[in-house]
Amino acid sequence: MSSVIQKRRTKKSTQKSKEVSQRTVDEGTTAEKKTHRKQIVKFVKNALEKGPAGLRAEFAAMKRFNDFEKMKAFKEAQEHGKNRYKDVGCLDHNRVKLHPPWPHDYIHANFVSTPSNPRRFICTQAPLDKSCADFWYMCLQEKVDSIFMLCNIMEKGAKKCCDYFACKDKPVLEFEEKGHKIIVKFESTGKMKFEKNTDAKITETVFTVEGPGGLAQKVTQYHWIDWPDRGVPTADMAIVELLAKTRPSKGPTVVHCSAGIGRTGSVVMIEYILDQLLGGQQIEETDKILQKIREQRNNSIQTDQQYLFVHQVILNYCLDKKMFDVDVKLAHLAFTEKYMKSVH
């Protein structure tokens, strides 16, 4: 009898300790949520108080410049026709270096980190006829499984990117650099499906890439067809969904537009803020964030419209996640009205 009583007591005691530990977890979670919310509120408050006009002034104060002392490889590559633009430099300290057996180590590309991932992105220019083989070898070397293509081949009557990828009409492409061959095979294509309503037109194409020494990699290219050059698309959740889709990748995501700094920089900055937001960290001041990105990919974000777009996307994300009370919703609405006038 006493052993039955003892068992009951032990059971009650175990149950009680479980309840206590669960309550502690819940309280911890609640406390974390409150802290997290405070951090988000601070970011939102700052953005809404500055408004589009204040953010444009903030962006204008961050002058863009090239320090060619920090871009020696870029200067040397100029004569070999490996750079798309003379005034869009590539920093030495974190540039992607191509390894042997590749005949040279230069490509106009930089590793760019987010707070939780030191190699989240490779930001690069759109491939040139002379750099297609380099581009695909980089993807093989760095085990890249996702590419964001944010430009079109032709824009406003000018060629912004070469035909570096296979398609239904040309299912196999071959590129060569000093005897080293890369083969790109078309596998499948279709429109990217979104959970939320969006205007974005993104094509999802899968390739198999094969290179020297038996290197092979499946790569998915997300081609954002309707993101205007030096402009911005609709600030909906398309970019958030695209980033979420590629976040689990083991290798870095390659991002390119034409120069690899404007539209490319906008995507990187949105992910940088989301990384802090999702990780429960304090979101830094956005001008400080842009400075950190520019220290990795020179002159990232080219226009004040792009800078505003980053803020509008994050604010819309917070609204979507029901983080706003009535007053903030009204302030957000006023911000959005001014934003729409600024970008159209």
From TrEMBL:
Pfam families per UniProt: Y_phosphatase
Biased composition (Basic residues): 1-15
Provenance organism: Caenorhabditis elegans
Basic and acidic residues bias (residue ranges): 16-33
Domain Tyrosine specific protein phosphatases: 237-308
Ranges for region Disordered: 1-35
Designated name of the protein: Protein-tyrosine phosphatase
SMART domains xref list: PTPc, PTPc_motif
TM region positions: none
GO molecular function terms listed in the Swiss-Prot or TrEMBL record: protein tyrosine phosphatase activity
Native organism taxonomy: Eukaryota, Metazoa, Ecdysozoa, Nematoda, Chromadorea
SUPFAM superfamilies: (Phosphotyrosine protein) phosphatases II (SSF52799)
Tyrosine-protein phosphatase domain span: 55-317
